[in-house]
Amino acid sequence: MRAGQLIAAAKKAQAEDVSELEKRARKLLHGRIVGFVTLCDRLDISPARGRQLVEKLKLDGYNLHIKESEVSLESEIPVLPPIEIDSNRFFDGKWMRFGAMGDTHLCNRHARLDVLKALYDIYLREGITTVLHTGNIVDGECRFNRHELLTRSGIDAQLEYLMNEYPVRKGIETWFVTGDDHEGWWNQREGINIGQVMQDYADRCGRKDLKWIGHMERDIYLKAKAGRTWLRVTHPGGGTAYAISYATQKIVESYQGGEKPHIGLFGHYHKFERGYPREVHVVQTGCVEDQTPFMRKKKLQAMVGGCIIEFHQAPDGAVHRFRDEWIPFFDRKCYETKDKFRTW
Are 19 and 134 within one domain? Predict the structure, then answer.
């Protein structure tokens, strides 16, 4: 065997050793707190090698918690502090406007790329500069959705598809949360902070328009002249109730006093709904995916489309004017049989 082949074989063996070591470390750390010395002893490595291993896992996006001399790999992703936006400049009679949508489920064969691109064309024409996405931007991977995926197995394949297919429109940024389901399945199984992994991947690909803002929910503070209010972007859990408004109504009712937002955007349920429980402007943002076999089995409707939301604040920060526009689309068969009919 030549020298070059020997070196290549040694590097391959070393890479396999490192990969196996990382697997053992993740298994040891997942869901439990382990002392750093114990970690090194169990893996039979030096403290210096142990520190290198922990740093590599962090760089790879694993949700490691390090406290003094203890390490753990957690599924729970910390809540990020609110984003602050100064809305004083809007008190000249103009309205704050943004797009709102969610549940695009890219990589699933039922996802509607045609609708997604059409919505962004509308947002561009309407002068929208920010789109708030309520989660499940990709479909994730689990044992019961693999037959519906358009990509090969693995996170990288879905993120590559996302970067290639998610619309780019000049001047528009998309702020998205990640859900505890679908893309969140990776977090639950492997302890990966999937939102941060998505953000790092987008940055490497030059997709500066995609901004991960939090896991499951994130508050956006809207600061006015003499006060403020806030908007909450949420991807909740649970199933759709017998009434479309019931789930979001109960979520808002569960908020403790002083922590309910003035505007709540909700994904997950694949429905459009506009409500006002407890003086909260609630909008369910629909979906960009046709009814899946799971939804058909559960008798769940998919409301395909997106929103444009406008509001105006009083000087004390209260949202005293609010309006929303629902932009509906229909299943593919509608356009196959009525190819001249378009809603956009």
Answer: no
The pLDDT tens digits of the residues spanning 134-178 come to 999 999 999 889 999 999 999 999 999 999 999 999 999 999 999
CATH number at residue 165: 3.60.21.10
Spatial separation of the C-alpha atoms in residues 310 and 231, rounded to whole Å: 12
The full 3-state SS of the chain, as one line of letters, equals: CCHHHHHHHHHHHHHHHHHHHHHHHHHHHECCEEEHHHHHHHHCCCHHHHHHHHHHHHHCCECEEEECCEEEECCCCCCCCCEEEECHHHCCCCCEEEEEECCCCECECCECHHHHHHHHHHHHHCCCCEEEECCCCECCCCCCCHHHECCCCCHHHHHHHHHHHCCCCCCCEEEEEECCCCHHHHHHHHCECHHHHHHHHHHHCCCCCEEEEEECEEEEEEECCCCEEEEEEECCCCCCCCCCCHHHHHHHHHCCCCCCCCEEEECCCCCEEEECHHHCEEEEECECECCCHHHHHCCCCCCEEEEEEEEEECCCCCEEEEEEEEEECCCHHHHHHCCCCCCC
Q: pLDDT tens across 310-342, in order?
A: 999 888 889 999 999 999 998 776 666 555 445
pTM of the full predicted structure?
0.84
Instruction: Report the alpha-carbon distance of residue 208 to residue 170 in Å, rounded.
Output: 11
Which of 28, 43, 73 represents a domain boundary (last residue)? 73
206 with 279, same domain? yes
Orientation angle between helical segments 36-43 and 3-29, nearest 10 degrees: 130
